[in-house]
Amino acid sequence: MDAVLLARIQFGLTIAFHFLFPPLTIGLSWIIFGMVSRYAKTKSAADRAMARFWIKLFGISFAVGVSTGIAMEFQFGTNWASYSRFVGDVFGSLLAAEALTAFFLESTFMAVLLLGWNKVSADMLKLSAFLVAFGSTISGFWILIANSWQQTPAGFKMSAGRPVLDNFWGAVFNPSMLPRFFHTIDGAIMTGSFFVIGVSAWYLLKGKNVVFATVSLKTAIIWAVISTCAQPLIGHWHAVNTAHNQPVKLAAYEALFDTECPAAMTLIGWPRPDLGRTDYAIRMPAMLSWMISGTPKCKVMGLNDPAILKGIDNPKVTKVQDVWPSILVLFFGFRAMVGLGMLMALLVLIGAWLSWKGSIATNRLYLKIAMWMMPLPWIANNLGWAVTEMGRQPWTVQNMLLTVDSVSVNVPAWQVLFTIILFLVVYAAIFGLWLMTIRKQIAKGPEGGEPA
Fold first, then answer.
1. 157 CB-contact burial (10 Å; exposed 0-12 / middle 13-18 / buried 19+)
2. Contact 384, 377 (CB under 8 A)
């Protein structure tokens, strides 16, 4: 057993499970803000019931997200002690800022939303809903700063062999931070939207709470159209940033082994890293150069280009293959993510058309499809996270700290394997409890639920 591989598997498991919940709560929080704003304007019992229903589902998911985040952070000190020592002087202030400016804000005003409906004014509820949504988003902002810093380190100086923060704002606005932040937050809004769409579709198919479900569905469709249409633009921005700051990752996405000018975009194929080629490739000439620069004259670096080793001073890196990520995972994972995004955009645009026609609440085929497509944003989010993180390999901090040098030296493989099994058992129980609680709340429906 390889302790490094097992530690990576455990980290991937805990991240993937935790990342089911923050996108849902961030996206749902902004939809809830819209619903509470509607209630503050109308003061109607129906709008009050709608907002309170989705707030309860938000609260359940938020609690689970916090618990899984604690487990994720715990393993930094167990499996990744060398990494923690290396980045501690940089991440300390960033993560402290997250706790002080975001988590406490979100938690405090969420209590107002959950418990204050008969104690504070509608305007105070609206303000609380905004601060919860804002706090959720800012929390993601600080976490994504830390992640982006690993991808494109900035704002530091080296001291005693490790980075020390010397430009706080330089680290905050490191080269890849903004596109990664907007890409992730927009994906979160898509997740919250599809969750509301799916649950509302279930009610309409069952003939329950029809007015409530129709309003919720139409509200979520608006958010979904905006977020899904924005995602290709933000994703393009992110891809251009990757091309300039992480060319190895971009080359792996495209399975581009040889430097090209102009560079073609590969739509599909079967990469053969052992042979340095892509079999059965369907390519669009010059399109990759056009996409990242707006001109066909842009040179795109391939995986075999010796220039990818420029600036790397590590005795363990002697040839280009030493810095290759998992090309098959990145090539197919990236295309699966993009394909799911296109499918979701098609679904919500059809939904917007049906909503405009006034038939969305009665189109049973669309409602069935919408209900079963509810998990798609979660799958796309985790695919995006996987290709982002695996695209940085073999580094934990790009071109500075190798993954093999990041693990805890005194934690044997069998202990890591044991905790993986333990995490699987505990996470299965947590997910089952979350699902059971959510289903129970959905079955209960909004306050003063309508007859079938």
1. exposed
2. no
| Angle made by CA atoms 404, 407, 409, in degrees to the nearest 5 | 105
**Would the pTM count as exceeding 0.85?**
yes
User: Residue 422 and residue 428: Cα distance in Å, rounded?
Assistant: 10
And the tokens for 143?
């976490």
* Nearby residues of 168 by Cβ (< 8 Å), 6 or more positions away: 93, 155
Tokens of 284: 């669009």
Q: Pinpoint the alpha helices (H) of 104-158.
A: 104-115, 122-151
Check: CB of residue 176 under 8 Å from CB of residue 148: yes
| Contact assessment for residue 228 and residue 345, using Cβ atoms and an 8 Å cutoff | yes
Beta bridge partners of 283: 266
Q: How far apart are CA 216 and CA 203, in angstroms?
A: 11
Alpha-helical regions (H) of 176-267: 177-206, 210-245, 247-254
Q: Which of 446, 451, 370, 412 is nearest to 57 (CA)?
A: 446
Neighbours of 284 (CB within 10 A): 12
| Residue-level pLDDT, tens digit, the chain, 452 residues | 788 899 999 999 998 999 999 999 999 999 999 999 999 999 888 889 999 999 999 999 998 988 887 777 777 778 898 998 898 888 877 777 766 666 677 778 888 888 888 888 888 999 999 999 998 999 889 889 989 999 999 999 998 889 998 998 999 999 999 999 999 999 999 999 999 999 999 999 999 889 999 999 999 999 999 999 999 999 999 999 999 999 999 999 999 999 988 999 999 999 999 998 999 999 999 999 998 888 888 899 999 999 998 888 888 998 999 999 999 999 999 999 999 999 999 999 999 999 999 899 899 999 999 999 999 999 999 999 999 999 999 999 999 999 999 998 888 888 888 989 998 999 999 999 999 999 999 999 887 665 44
Whether the Cβ atoms of residue 149 and residue 90 lie closer than 8 Å to each other = yes
Collapsing DSSP to helix, strand or coil, 161 comes out as coil
Q: Are 91 and 80 in contact (CB under 8 A)?
A: no
C-beta of residue 374 within 8 angstroms of C-beta of residue 198: yes
Query: What's the sign of the alpha-carbon dihedral 36, 193, 108, 51?
Result: positive
Token pair listed for 147: 């992640």
> What percent of the residues of the chain are helix, what percent strand, and what percent coil, each to the nearest 5?
70, 5, 20
The tokens describing 265, both together, are 């975009």
